[in-house]
Amino acid sequence: MRLFLLTALTMCAFAANSILNRMAVEGGDSDPAGFAVMRVLAGALMLAVLVLIRGGSLPLRSPRRFIGAGALSLYMIGFSIAYLTLDAGLGALILFGIVQITMFVATVVTGNSTTRQQLLGAAIALGGLAYVLWPSGTVQVDPVGAALMCAAGIGWAAYSLAGRSEPNALAGTAANFVIALPVTAGALLLLGGGWQMTGTGLLLSAISGAVTSGLGYALWYRVLPQLAPTVAAVVQLSVPVIAILGGVLLLSETAEARLLIGAALVLGGIALAVLQRQRG
């Protein structure tokens, strides 16, 4: 039960990132690149301070940072630039679809078993997510944006897989953020154009970085060693659904039958995959 609650809390933190981003960017208080840079900066500061207060140190020179910080940078850069040309729903579908595929492939390559019930649960959850997020009308996909979102998905999958062997979740996450900051900032400011940020945008990005990203990612690294890669992949499909439901509650967005049906499919598929894991 404790693992379930911690995992659910982590997924809610990830979904909160989406809501905070939408509040800032769609509200005109920040551009995507500026929000992402401030998000990484706030996360790096929060986590570094917590590590130092606890008397620890940042493992900046650890070989783990090549994967951890590198994958985090790839995710942040690809995610932020891709959304300049992609529909929000389609972008989320590409991102989490690639995350799931990458983590399932990694499971097979490393010799870990994947059951038919886990595969069925993953397929149902992904189908439900597609049902919720697929844009209505004519779909036009920018190939560059799609490629960048695929790169972001691979980056996040690699970041998640790397977390399974991280010996210190808080210190490792802090070091990842610190190293990823100059890489992410340099790339986004170079490719993302000008900087536009109001006081509200700064506040929202700081909350996203310090709390729902920094602490949320540290919590994710803590629970990952207890989750099979396939389960870790499937549960993340709940994030867009939680974000949409959060938008209904917090942003006065409309809850349609399509959302409720898709959410039921996503949660049902997740339950199917996770319950199989618990029996095994």
TrEMBL record:
<feature type="transmembrane region" description="Helical">
    <location>
        <begin position="257"/>
        <end position="275"/>
    </location>
</feature>
<feature type="signal peptide">
    <location>
        <begin position="1"/>
        <end position="15"/>
    </location>
</feature>
<keyword id="KW-0472">Membrane</keyword>
<keyword id="KW-0812">Transmembrane</keyword>
<feature type="domain" description="EamA">
    <location>
        <begin position="145"/>
        <end position="274"/>
    </location>
</feature>
<feature type="transmembrane region" description="Helical">
    <location>
        <begin position="34"/>
        <end position="53"/>
    </location>
</feature>
<dbReference type="GO" id="GO:0016020">
    <property type="term" value="C:membrane"/>
</dbReference>
<feature type="transmembrane region" description="Helical">
    <location>
        <begin position="119"/>
        <end position="137"/>
    </location>
</feature>
<keyword id="KW-1133">Transmembrane helix</keyword>
<feature type="transmembrane region" description="Helical">
    <location>
        <begin position="227"/>
        <end position="251"/>
    </location>
</feature>
<dbReference type="InterPro" id="IPR037185">
    <property type="entry name" value="EmrE-like"/>
</dbReference>
<feature type="transmembrane region" description="Helical">
    <location>
        <begin position="201"/>
        <end position="220"/>
    </location>
</feature>
<protein>
    <submittedName>
        <fullName>Threonine/homoserine efflux transporter RhtA</fullName>
    </submittedName>
</protein>
<feature type="transmembrane region" description="Helical">
    <location>
        <begin position="65"/>
        <end position="86"/>
    </location>
</feature>
<dbReference type="InterPro" id="IPR000620">
    <property type="entry name" value="EamA_dom"/>
</dbReference>
<dbReference type="Pfam" id="PF00892">
    <property type="entry name" value="EamA"/>
</dbReference>
<keyword id="KW-0732">Signal</keyword>
<dbReference type="InterPro" id="IPR050638">
    <property type="entry name" value="AA-Vitamin_Transporters"/>
</dbReference>
<feature type="transmembrane region" description="Helical">
    <location>
        <begin position="92"/>
        <end position="112"/>
    </location>
</feature>
<feature type="transmembrane region" description="Helical">
    <location>
        <begin position="174"/>
        <end position="195"/>
    </location>
</feature>
